Amino acid sequence: MSNKKTTKQKVAVLGAGNMGTAIAMVLADNGHTVHIWNWEGDIKPLQDIEKYSENKKYLRGHTLSKRIIAKYNIMEALEGVTQVYLVIPSHVLEHTIAFAAKYIPDNAVIIDVSKGLDPNTLRITPHIIQKHVRPKLKKNVVAISGPAIAAQMAERKFTAMNIAGKHNVVIKKVQAVMENDYTRLVPSNDVMGIQIGGAFKNVYTIAIGMCDGLEFGLNTKAALLTYALDEIQHMIVAMGGNKSTAYELAGIGDLIGTSLSPHSRNRTFGHYLGDGLTTPEALKKITQVVEGIDATYALMRLAREHHIHAPFAHMVHQCITSKTDPRPAFIRFLQQLGT
What we know:
The structure is a single chain. About 50% of the residues lie in helices and about 10% in strands. The longest helix is centred in the middle third of the chain and has 23 residues, at about 190-215. An 8-stranded mixed β-sheet has the order 3-2-1-4-5-6-7-8, sandwiched between helices. It is built from 16 helices and 8 strands.
């Protein structure tokens, strides 16, 4: 299971949610020592990992390796590590990296797993990281994005994702540490494209979730996914990415995987909207961040800025901002599809 060719290393995972914990499990399976940290306002996952070898809050039911070590202090988490995996919600990433940057060791590789855009500045997360790290580390920033459901990674189900960066030697370092017989990283040089795909698939996943609430079937979902991919493709190109990335793991792969997964928070949120709940009512039922909400606002701003026609995203925006039952806006969109 582990990658035996690689010298065992000490690495850090910043973010102890479901995906951060799953990434830590992959790295520990490969024989590496993993320091896992979570923001100071949410230390229960760290306490559970320390006491029970299980993240009962975010990834219940999965026993964790003793090589995964909870760290309550970010400075201690980063001490002596060769790779730093950032698995933090995109809206708090800048605050975290701004503080953590000075403690990241020289020559460490920094892996952005957060993927997406800052909802205020509309900068993609790798660019936010590069803004704050010292000059010698900027070339060591790479991004991972693709269809990766945390629970399935924790169950060691085969998972393939894109890894994007400008320097192949850095990509190879991450592959050497993270890949094994159930985890594959496929290289890309389109950092912008995989970030746009990874961020905006969450917008359309909300709509696929609404199909479940409304008891629509795969016919409806397949039609909607087709139009979603088209809008994502146009946004990738407008932002300077490659059109072909929309058809790679970080594009259509992530869109399908997230939209059809029962574990997706964005899909679950959409399901509640499809039941007729408003956004505040739906959020009360979900205990984790629904990144598709901020992503929808960001997509609408970028669509206006780049003059992109995005009626599907506009409909999702109408649904999440509706003060009453959001379902009529969804039905109207279906009735006008293709016109």
